[in-house]
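Predict the 3D structure for this chain.
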Amino acid sequence: MQLGILFFVACLVTLGAGTFTFYSTSSGYEHRQAFVYAGKSTDAALVCVTVLIFTTCVVLLAANA
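Done. Predicted structure below.
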């Protein structure tokens, strides 16, 4: 699988997580909640994207060595 496809999917996942976070926090602010948490799904998406980036860096550095 090409890296471009993986990063495109990661981009879409991040945009989806950001949209979900925006609407969930906006709803929380409308109900005057003091602390608004986006949820485990947003955290999981961002962790997956972070792991993808670090893994790609390691693979590319190992390939050049």
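The mean pLDDT is 85.
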